[in-house]
Amino acid sequence: MTPLLEVVAASRMAQGRAIVSDISLRLQPGEMLGLVGPNGSGKSTLLGMMAGLIRPCRGQVRLKGLPMQALRRRRIAQLLALVAQSAETAERITVRQAVELGRIPRLGPLRPWRARDHEAVAAALKAVDMAHLAGRDWSSLSGGERQRAHIARALAQAPRILLLDEPTNHLDIHHQIAILDLIAGLSVTTVVALHDMHHALRCDRVLVMRAGRCAALGPPAQVLTPGLIRDIFAVKAEIIPHPRTGRPVFDFERLC
Amino acid sequence: MRARAARRSGVWLWLAPTLLAAALFFGVAVGETRIPLATVIDVLAVQTGLSQRVLDPIDASVIWHYRLSRAVVAACGGASLALSGLILQALLRNPLAEPYLLGISAGASTGAVLIAVAGLGGGLVGMSAGAFAGALSAFALVAGLAHVAGGGAGPRQAAVIILAGIAGSQMFNALTALIIAQSASAEQARGIMFWLLGNLSGVRWPDSWLAVPVAVLGLAVTLWHIRTLDAFAFGAEAAAALGIDLRRAQAVLIATAALVTAVMVSIAGAIGFVGLVVPHAMRFLVGTRHGRLVPATALAGAVFLVLSDVVSRIVIPGQVLPIGVITALIGAPGFALVMIRGRRR
Ligand SMILES: Nc1ncnc2c1ncn2[C@@H]1O[C@H](COP(=O)(O)OP(=O)(O)OP(=O)(O)O)[C@@H](O)[C@H]1O
Ligand SMILES: [Mg+2]
Fold it and tell me: Are residues A181 and A232 in the same domain?
C-alpha cells in the first residue's frame, strides 16, 4: 500500500546552508508523529515541505504516492492542513469567519456554502473550546485563543493529515493538555512540532532533529533517553517514574 | 438565521440596481445648465422608444449624448477603480494599496500617451492596450522595488510599498511629461495635460462600449475569486495552505486590476483615491468578507464616481472641475484616516 505521506531523502538549502538534509520518513495511518529539536533545527522547514509549501532542493515529498509538484494546491489542501507557527491578520474578522476559511478547499466559485460546512465549523469551534468566542473580533483574542482558533480552522478543513507547528505555544496548561488530548484522539494522521518532552511522550513516534538532520526516529520511550537529550539539547536529563502512575517525569539541569 | 441572511441578500438583488439607476438618473438630471426634470424624463422616454414626443434637439443631445454617456462611464470607472483597490489591498495585505497610490495609474497614463503621441492608431482600444502594458510595467517596477527594499512583513512592509508607489508614480509622470514635451504639438499637449488630471469631459457613447464590458469583466473575475481573496486574510502562505494556487491567483487578479485601471485611465485619465475610500467605507458597512464586500464595493464605487462627477460640474458655477480634483478632496483625508487607524492597532 502506498503511504499517505512520504518524505524521501529531502533536503533544503537556504543561503548556501543546509537547513534540512536528507530526511526520510513514512507516515503511518492514524499515527501521531512528534518533531523535537532545538530552535533552528529545521522542524518548521520540514513541516513546510510536508505541506508542499516549501520545495525540497533535493529529494521528494510524496502525497498518496504522487510528488507534491504534480498535485494541485487545492487537492493538497483537501488532504492536508497546516497550523503554522505564527499567522496574523490586520483584517477585522471574527473567530467564526477565521475558522470558516478552513472550508475554502472544499468550496468553489460555483459550489456554495452548505449546511455541511456550517456543521464542520461549529464542530471545530467546539473541539477547541472556542464556541463561546465565535463572534469575537480576531484582534480582541489572546495569544492562546488565537492559537486555538487556528487549530479550529485546520480541523474545519477535515484533513487526512494534520501538521501542527508548536500548537501548544501560548496555551495555558489546561488548554495545552486539552489540545494534546484532542490531537491524540483524532483519527487523522498528525505531525506535531513540540518543545515539551512530556508532550512528546504522548506521540506514537518522535523524530529528533539536529541541525537539519534526523538524529533519531522511533517510539518516544526508546528515543528520548537521557543520553540523547544531553547530546541534542545540552542539558542533563533525569527520567523519574511518577510515584503513583509510573509515567515518566523529566527533570532537567542545564550543562554549561 | 440563514433564512434571514438569504432574505437580506434577496433585498440587495433589487436594491442595488435601483440605487445605481437612481445615481445615474441624478447624474443625468443635474448639470451646468438647468434642464427641467420633465424634459429629462421625456428625453429618456423618447430615446428608449417609450414615447414619440418631439423634443428640443439641444436638450435631447445634452441629456442623451453628453450627460448619460458620461454618467454610465463614470459608473463603470468607479466600480472598476474601487474593485482594483480592493484586489490590491487583499493581495498585498496593505490597507493603503490603490492603483493611483501604487503608481499603476501613472504607468497606464504613460502607456496611453505613448500610443496617442506616437500615432500608432487603434483609437481607444490601442490606447487601452498601451495603458495596460504601462500599468503592468508600473506594478512590476513598484513590486520589485518594494521587494528589494525589503522590510519583511507588517507595518514597515506596508510603508515600503507605498514609498515604492510614490517613486514609481513620479518616474512615470516624468516619463509622460518627457514624451509630451518631445513629440506632442502644443495643442495636443494641452489636451493631454487636461486629460491626465482625471477628466470625464470628453466622454461620449463610444467610450462606454469599452468601459461597460471591461467593468463587467472586472466584476465577474473578482466575484469568481471571492474565496481566494478571503483566503489571503492570514497572508499568502496561509492562502497557499488553504489550496490557493498563488501564482495563478495573483497573476489573474493583478492583471484584472491593471486592465480595469488601464481602460479607465485611457478614457478619463488618472482618477485617484476611489480605490482607497470606497473599499474602506464598505468594510465598515458590510464587513471584511469578500462575498459581500465585492458587490458592495462595485456598487458603491459606481455611485461614488457618478456623484463626484455631478459635484465636479456644479460646485463652481459655470466651471467644470476635473473629477480627479473632487475624488482627491474626499480621498486624501480618507487616506489620512486609514493611516491613523492603522497606527492605533
Ligand atoms: N528562508 C530562509 N532563509 C534563510 N534561512 C532560513 C530560512 N528559513 C529558515 N531558515 C533557517 O533555517 C533554520 C531552520 O529553521 P526552522 O524554522 O525550520 O527551525 P525550527 O526547528 O522550526 O526552529 P524553532 O524551534 O525556533 O521553531 C534556522 O536556522 C533558520 O534561521
Ligand atoms: Mg519552528
Answer: no
Number of Cβ within a 10 Å radius of residue A79: 19
pLDDT at position B344 is: 55
Sign of CA dihedral A80, A85, A89, A93: positive
User: What is the ipTM score, two decimals?
Assistant: 0.90
- Pair A37, A115 in one domain: yes
Q: Which fold has domain B16-344?
A: ABC transporter involved in vitamin B12 uptake, BtuC (1.10.3470)
Altogether, the residues listed in chain B come to a count of 345
B13 CB neighbour count, 10 Å cutoff: 9
Name the residue at shortest CA distance from atom 31 of ligand 1.
A40
How many domains would you assign to chain A? 2
Q: How confident is the model at residue B106 (pLDDT cuts 50, 70, 90)?
A: very high
Cα A255 to Cα A208, A233, B299: the distances in Å are 19, 9, 66
**Neighbour count for residue A252 (Cβ, 10 Å):** 13
Q: Is the dihedral of CA A132, A135, A139, A140 positive or negative?
A: negative
Query: Cα of A44 to ligand 1 centre, how many Å?
Result: 7
Q: Do A233 and A250 fall into the same domain? A: yes
Residue (of B329, B153, B309) closest to B237 by Cα position: B153
Interface test with A, best of B92, B242, B284, B341 (most A CBs within 10 A): B242
Residue B90 CB burial class (10 angstroms; 0-12, 13-18, ≥19): buried
pLDDT at B86 over 90: yes
A188 or B185, which is more confident: A188
> Any residues with Cβ below 6 Å from ligand 1, and which?
A 14-15, 19, 37, 39-45, 85
Name the burial class of residue A193, with classes exposed (0-12), middle (13-18) and buried (19+) by CB atoms within 10 angstroms of its CB.
Answer: buried
Question: Which of A89, A101, A118 lies at the smallest CB-CB distance from B242?
Answer: A101
The model's pTM is 0.90
Asked if the model's pLDDT at residue B345 lies above 60, the reply is no
Asked if A103 and A117 touch (Cβ cutoff 8 Å), the reply is yes
A96: Cα within 13 Å, side-chain hemisphere: 11
| Residue A149 and residue A187 share a domain | yes
| CA distance linking residue B290 with residue B230, whole number of Å | 6
Which phi and psi (to 5°) does residue B198 adopt?
95, 100
* pLDDT-derived band at A213, boundaries 50, 70, 90: very high
pLDDT at B32 over 50: yes
Q: Which residue has a Cα nearest atom 30 of ligand 1?
A: A40
Do A215 and A235 fall within a single domain? no
Residues A233 and A186 reside in one and the same domain: no
Instruction: Name which residue leads in pLDDT, B202 or B166.
Output: B166
pLDDT of B151:
57
* B221 vs B207, residue with greater confidence: B221
Range of the domain at A239: 225-256
